[in-house]
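Onboarding guide, step 5: your first structure request.
Type a short instruction followed by the sequence, for example:

Predict the 3D structure of this protein.
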Amino acid sequence: MTSARAQNRQGGCCGSCTRYMTSARFLLYLSHSLSTWGDRMWHFAVSVFLVELYGNSLLLTAVYGLVVAGSVLVLGASIGDWVDKNARLKVARTALVVQNVSVILCGLILMMVFLHKHELLTMYHGWVLTSCYILIITIANIANLASTATAITIQRDWIVVVAGEDRSKLADMNATIRRIDQLTNILAPMAVGQIMTFGSPVIGCGFISGWNLVSMGVEYFLLWKVYQKTPALAVKATLKVEESELKQLNLQKDTEPKSLEGSHLMSEKDPNICELEREQEPTCASQMAEPFRTFRDGWVSYYNQPVFLAGMALAFLYMTVLGFDCITTGYAYTQGLSGSLLSILMGASAITGIMGTVAFTWLRRKCGLIRTGLFSGWAQLSCLILCVISVFMPGSPLDLSVSPFEDTRSRFMQGELVSPTTKIPETIFTTETNTSNGSNIVHTVQEMSTKSVPIISVSLLFAGVIAARIGLWAFDLTVTQLLQENVIESERGIINGVQNSMNYLLDLLHFIMVILAPNPEAFGLLVLISVSFVAMGHIMYFRFAQKTLGSQLLVCGLDEKEVPEEHQPNTSVV
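The system replies with structure tokens like these:
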């Protein structure tokens, strides 16, 4: 009878918790949708705005990308440490407000610059306009850092608490979050792009600022409701450790024998206690060194994690040109693909990404979490073989006789030739010669335009990129959940902050690789290097899976022991 009553009470509690969690999950999805929509619109628009401001040059956009990557690389551990050491609601609210206010302020400054650009250009020899550029990039970088903090606290911490102990529910929530990301990656840039096309950059800035102003209040309310409906969010491991230490100190203080003369008559403290307090008081030097210690401790703790190899495997996937970013888009334009066709291909990649989230949930139920990452890695590499084949197919611009630095060297040569000492008569003579042979040039251009360029190479390239998104997103979700499940709560923020730093580091390296070899003839080499880095990443993950599962690596249907007990993370603070 007692057991039955206990089961009934437990069942009633679980039913109530299920209703709470279901409601909290929906509110969390809604909040993430609003946040992601505004974030994607801003990241798409700010690059366009910077190009528009600097006379259709990519200089400001490149500087912005470098500042953003460098900031997250250096401050990722500190942001995660801040997330760990503060209450969840405080972190979420602070990051939300800082992010949205920064975007609103940046949008207003951009509107002012667009409206008064010529006046600002004439003030103090253009230094006022340059200061505006610096201010815009700085505030936009602050918004990105706040967005990083939001992603860490919501997608790496809150979602784990809302899902509870049910790992299947956590997997479903992670997959749903990724589906929302995939949809907003398409719809948000399309929406703001249409506004900027049929309106103006000023209207686009105003729309994004207004969106962030309205969504900030709505997201603030939704996060508060999620916090109310999930009581476990109010309890944090770091706070519990601090409270237990404080109670222990108070207990020791009560049990220690007190000196009547020292404590009651003279009201003086024990000299040993005074010396200990002086040692614990933070000095100026220690406060200045605190960020460096946090940076060091964060990376050391990340290295000591049982899922270190899995996190490194995910970071290595960022060292690639095989994605729908500005680099791949620029290469597609050199191969004759139109903008409308590229938009269709981007839509297809989003669909395969959603298929990857579905495959993740199915594989996890059938084979377990670690094996899901193994199989999704094999699927991604198998699809990327098409990209390797495309390098050697007809239509590929790969030319090993052309130096990868040819484009950079030719630009320097042009810079040396175009100088004040250039002889004008020679230029005029060249122009006249070209004019006299105008009919031949027109005939040559017509022949080049009518000549069919083989598209089999670029077709295989994008077929491999699009198909590989299935394995890519399934693998991303696998590593994400491994970090969620196997990193202790008190280090969840700093470990994910270091993981973001690793991702940005490899992403930065891939941009440097493109800068060193920017010409289309070298793009095939970049494809081969990218596939090599992806393969190295999956080799790291295979080693992690082999160490964890041992002889049961390829045996599906068994209960998977995610991390052996001897590899469990150390609960002591590094």
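Each response can be followed by summary notes, for example: The chain has a mean pLDDT of 77.
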